Amino acid sequence: ATLLSQGDFTSREENASLRVRGRASLLSSGERTIVRLENFRVARGTDLHVYLAPALGDEDAVDFGALKATEGNMNYEIVNLFDLSPYHYVLIWSRAFGVLLGYAEL
């Protein structure tokens, strides 16, 4: 796989139980493009989703679905390939509360 970009997560929450840690990477492997979370950790949260976004809000963000686990390494494949150039952030967002818990700038 070829590394296209990567960045470390920054938490938006001061509460230690909601703090987000780890790294996000954008990878290309043949015709597949993947958002990878590595050494990821968030203690808890309600209805957490992973987004690729052009800014820190949810407008124009692409939802990869529910967070697969609260810690570890996980991949989210970009199924319908689109122009990735404006998308510079991976967001961890609580859909239940409309709150951004953390982000990684790619």
Features:
globular; 106 residues; mainly beta; eight-stranded antiparallel sheet; 0% helix; 58% strand
Helix/strand/pairing category:
mainly beta
Tell the overall outline: globular
Largest sheet: 8 strands, antiparallel
Q: Within the largest sheet, what's the order of strands?
A: 5-4-7-8-1-2-3-6
Order of helices and strands: EEEEEEEE
Mean pLDDT rating: 89
Q: How far do the termini sit from each other?
A: 17 Å
Q: Indicate the low-confidence ranges by residue numbers.
A: none
The count of β-strands is 8
Question: What's the Cα radius of gyration?
Answer: 13 Å
Helix content: under 10%
Helix segment count?
0
Strand proportion, as a percent range, falls in over 45%
Written description of the protein model:
The protein has 106 residues and is mainly β. It has strands at residues 2-11, 20-29, 32-42, 48-53, 62-66, 71-77, 89-94, 99-105. An eight-stranded antiparallel beta sheet has the order 5-4-7-8-1-2-3-6, with no helix packed on it.
Summarize the structure.
The chain has 106 residues and is mainly β. The chain is built from no helices and 8 strands.
